[in-house]
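Researcher: Here's the sequence for the chain we discussed earlier.
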Amino acid sequence: MDTTDTLTITAVPGTQNIEMTREFDATREQLLKAHMDPELFAQWVGPHGYQMVITRFEPHHGGAYAFEHRNPEGDEFAFRGVFHGEPSVEGFSQTFEFMGAPGEVFYETFTFEDLGNRRTLLRAVSVAPSVEVRDSMVSSMETGVRDGYEKLDAALANL
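Model: Thanks. This is the structure I predict for it:
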């Protein structure tokens, strides 16, 4: 498989948005499945070396999700959210909340753009409740997102 590590994270100063883009050697259908199938989702989300425990996963309009990451030292980091609209090969929307900062809810949209030759561009846009919250999230997320997408490459290769 060719490397697809083309992650770009854009956070324009003074705005509440974070935009991430990355190409994958996969179809839109495969990327949707990787985001909506709890067994696949658990394989790739989060930093290398972290264990994923999904406690709720209802990928449909109004459905909730919740999961925890456990680092090698045993620290737990919990997250939750709600799906908005019906997920499709076009993409999906959800809220995202880190339980270490309750009430700081992001609204996220994920789109899957067909690039041809079984390649897809994933575009994720997260809107934070404030510029300050966005800035604190950007500084801590790059490693987890990059590691997660590397693991997603491996999961997609097995589909």
